[in-house]
């Protein structure tokens, strides 16, 4: 599987999912992978301002979804 690094802004409607992988032995920086509705996977430039905002949104949304209490 080959991924290209995208530095240009892509509209959010083109993503089917966003995956954030922490830095580790496989890569020195955090990886932000986007799955596109076309079926492609791309690696976003994690140093780009819009990617940082996107990653923060994904993390906050994930945190919020996991912290909600079940309705009784």
TrEMBL record:
Pfam family, one: IL8
Gene3D superfamilies named in the record: 2.40.50.40
Keyword Transmembrane annotated: no
Statement: the UniProt record of this protein carries the keyword Ligase: no
GO biological process: immune response
Source organism: Oncorhynchus mykiss (Rainbow trout)
Any one Gene Ontology molecular-function term assigned to this protein's record: chemokine activity
Signal peptide: 1-16
The protein's name: Chemokine interleukin-8-like domain-containing protein
Sorted UniProt keywords: Cytokine, Signal
InterPro entries: Chemokine_CXC, Chemokine_IL8-like_dom, Interleukin_8-like_sf
Domain Chemokine interleukin-8-like residues, every copy: 17-55
Gene Ontology CC entries for this record: extracellular space
Membrane-crossing segments per the record: none
């Amino acid at each position: 599987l080959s991924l290209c690094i995208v530095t240009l802004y892509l509209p959010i409607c083109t993503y089917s999912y966003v995956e954030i992988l922490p830095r580790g032995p496989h890569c020195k920086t955090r990886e932000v992978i986007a799955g596109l509705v076309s079926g492609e996977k791309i690696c976003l430039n994690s140093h780009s301002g819009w990617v940082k905002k996107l990653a923060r949104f994904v993390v906050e949304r994930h945190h919020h979804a996991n912290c909600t209490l079940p309705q009784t």
